[in-house]
Amino acid sequence: MPELPEVETVRRGLAGLVTGRRIEHVGVLHPRPVRRHLAGPDDFAVTLTGRTFAEPARRGKYLWLPFADGDALLAHLGMSGQFRLDAPDAPLAPNTRVLLDLDDGTQLRFVDQRMFGGLSLSPGGAALPAEVAHIGRDPFDPAFDVAAVGRRIRSRRTGIKRALLDQQVVSGIGNIYADEALWLARTHYARGTWTLSAAKAVEVLTAATTVMRRALAAGGTSFDALYVDVNGSSGYFDRALAVYGQEGRPCPRCGTAIRREPFMNRSSYRCPRCQRSPVATARAA
DNA sequence: ACGAGCTCCTGCTTGC
DNA sequence: TGCAAGCAGGAGCTCG
Description:
Elements: H1 4-18, E1 23-28, H2 41-48, E2 57-59, E3 62-66, E4 72-76, E5 81-86, E6 96-102, E7 107-112, E8 118-122, H3 146-154, H4 160-165, H5 175-184, H6 198-217, E9 259-263, E10 266-270
Antiparallel strand pairs: 1-6, 2-3, 3-4, 4-8, 5-7, 6-7, 9-10
Helix pairs in contact: 1-6, 3-6, 5-6
The protein binds a DNA duplex through loops.
């Protein structure tokens, strides 16, 4: 599942491959991934053709490929989105949704099994697409203010994991890195945000930054074929996960068996010893 | 305004 | 064996 480190890995891959390239032809194989382009798939194809890519940018899990004319191709990988660069005559991977033929004879392909992600044209979005402006800065942003975000978290009446997953508070963190960060900071997912000290709030955010920086260095996390970089390679960070997906395995810190618990209709993984149930728990968290 | 829950999607895994 | 339910979950949306 692509979170910030995976999206940044993809961005870096695209930067070296599409920057300066002109789109010669666009093929939309499935309408859903371009659903946010309200004028429809045909218009999407026509309006992109002839444009030239500048260097790809990212905030949180959003990725966009600016055009030299000031617009941008906005992309979100959702749960299973991938960008692949292939020869036009290479066999299509399953679930290939959009094809962009580039002027150097390569073909940029958007592949997405579950189609939670998608592509759209963002008018004037080269610097920061309007569709992205509502989310908070991510921890890799030079202007990220950890103390200010910590204050905002403490002002809430919710559980810490919900706050970490709220992209308007801090972007880029998904279920995997939320669990890893909370383990690193020895904090239970349901701990009430208002009960955190200023230092603890910063500690949790710093932990999230740390685990994502490590994951980025490893080329991202992958459990299966759903996340790959532009060359089709998986990352290696799954070998370094302390708790996520590790139910029954020993906590790397104390050896206690990791527990999986239902949370937000999904799963949370924690060490029952390092991350004790909080005295103050957010209601329904 | 804020917090919480629902929904969209496909394909692999699990259970009867 | 076959079918259905369970599970994976980002983010826009609705509702209280």
